[in-house]
């Protein structure tokens, strides 16, 4: 019989989710705009700026979609089926940025290495 495992976190600490649409060029930017607009029409979420350079820990151009934790079961499956050729980085929002970007993550499409160095001072 397995030894009981003490879990560190209660899912109630997840306050929100971010889904980052990744793209690398003008064609990808157009696709990200299309996906973001369709998601915003379908769900109560916030569409961030469309960056045309890597920002923060993100290695590619990106746009952030922000949504409530309660919407995860609707938004993420929709993105999985409607992301086109975009890679999507989904992460929890717990106010622990390093944890959120390393442990509380899901990739739709290919995964990419993040630049985690900006979280070094947060430890």
TrEMBL record:
Pfam families: DOPA_dioxygen (PF08883). InterPro entries: DOPA-like_sf, DOPA_dioxygen. It comes from the Bacteria. Gene3D superfamilies: DOPA-like domains. This is DOPA 4,5-dioxygenase family protein. It comes from Halomonas koreensis. The lineage of its organism: Bacteria, Pseudomonadati, Pseudomonadota, Gammaproteobacteria, Oceanospirillales.
